[in-house]
Amino acid sequence: MEFALQQAVDRLPPGDLTRADKEQSLSNLRAGVSGEKRIFETVCSVMLPDGVVLIQNLALPLLGGMQFQMDLVIVAKSGILLIESKQIAGRLRFHPVPAELRKVDENGEIQIVYDCPLAQLADQKENLLQWLRMEGYRVPVLGAVVFANNPIIEEIGQDAPVYKIREVRNLVRRHLERKSVINDEDVMAISETMREHAQSYLPFPLQHPNRSAYFTGPICRHCRKPLKKQSKRTWYCDICLLSDGDPYLVTLLAWFILIRKTISPREVMNLFDLKAHKSVRNLMMQLPFEKIGSGKTIGYQADYALLVNTEAVIQLIGEWLASEE
Ligand SMILES: [Zn+2]
């Protein structure tokens, strides 16, 4: 996901209105990931008894092809505890109607308005209860919003399940001390079913009002400016004075993330200034793309869930993120 947003930022022209938005999403996403990690580590530092299962970052299917995503799910004999993690600093006010989280400055002026984490949590709880019912389980679900940092919470409803990270160990301990409502076998069965049904949370291609704003050709892995074709295989950056022998797969991934789920051989040829269909076929063979159509309408389609689990893709994305200046 981070790779996806970064590609979106890198490939939009500086004047694009949505670029600032994407940059903000990217920095929020990074903060969010580090917050989730900190909360997970804190929960792990509690002496968890046998028969407690933690599942991080779980997306489960709902009816009609929908899915819902949860940050941390704790399955125990005392029931399921959902943790929605947040990383927002400053002075915060939970506003009940409309449900939103407002960040204010010292004078109480609203600076930013966020979706209300309590409303998100309530939604996840309902979705999880529905999923459990569909799978034939009856088990209570409790939830908590946990801030990975220590914001100043100025206004909040009484008994709202909102905690700061230093309270999270006690929150988990108290949950585990509650009366058992299911047995060890149920805990195992529920958590195994969750893992079996887990979906990748992949909102691709990313929404953009004007996809043609993206630069789709190969870009430099250092300065992110367009590369020029130097020879049959090699590409060159005028600014870094470096050549790149293999910008192909990263460029294709960016296409599937930003533009669309499919690509035609003609489009591949245009992207890389290729002359022969054979080169397209050789290139597309390197990753598990699905061939669609036949004869003249042939094209390639990305299966996002398959791609993110492909070793070569994981490696490419890792290298790309590591090369960031
Ligand atoms: Zn460069």
* H-E order: HHEEEEEEHEEEHHEEEHEHHEEHH
Shape by Cα distribution: globular
Query: Mean of residue pLDDT?
Result: 89
Into how many domains do the coordinates divide?
2
Distance between the termini: 19 Å
The small molecules bound here are:
zinc ion
Number of DSSP E strands: 15
Whole-number radius of gyration? Answer: 23 Å
Determine the strand fraction and express it as a percent band. 15-25%
- Structural class by sheet pairing and helices: alpha+beta
Total count of helical runs of at least 4 residues = 10
Return residue spans where pLDDT drops below 50 for at least 5 consecutive residues. Answer: none
For the sheet with most strands, the description reads: 5 strands, mixed
Strand order in the largest sheet:
1-2-3-7-9
InterPro entries: NERD (IPR011528)
Protein name: Nuclease-related domain-containing protein
Pfam family, one: NERD
Organism: Bhargavaea ginsengi
Written description of the protein model:
With 325 residues, this protein is of the alpha+beta class. The chain has two domains: 46-197, no CATH class; 211-322, Arc Repressor Mutant, subunit A (Orthogonal Bundle). Helices cover 38% and strands 22% of the residues. The protein is built from ten helices and 15 strands. The chain has helices spanning 2-10, 17-44, 117-134, 168-177, 184-197, 248-258, 265-272, 277-284, 304-308, 311-322, and strands at residues 53-61, 67-76, 79-86, 91-95, 100-104, 110-115, 141-147, 152-155, 162-164, 228-229, 235-237, 242-244, 262-263, 290-292, 299-301. The strands form four sheets. Strands 1-2-3-7-9 form a five-stranded mixed sheet, with helices on both faces. Strands 6-5-4-8 form a four-stranded mixed sheet. β10 and β11 (235-237) form a beta hairpin. The longest helix has 28 residues, at 17-44. It starts with a helix and ends with a helix. Zinc ion binds at residues 220, 222-223, 225, 237, 239-240.
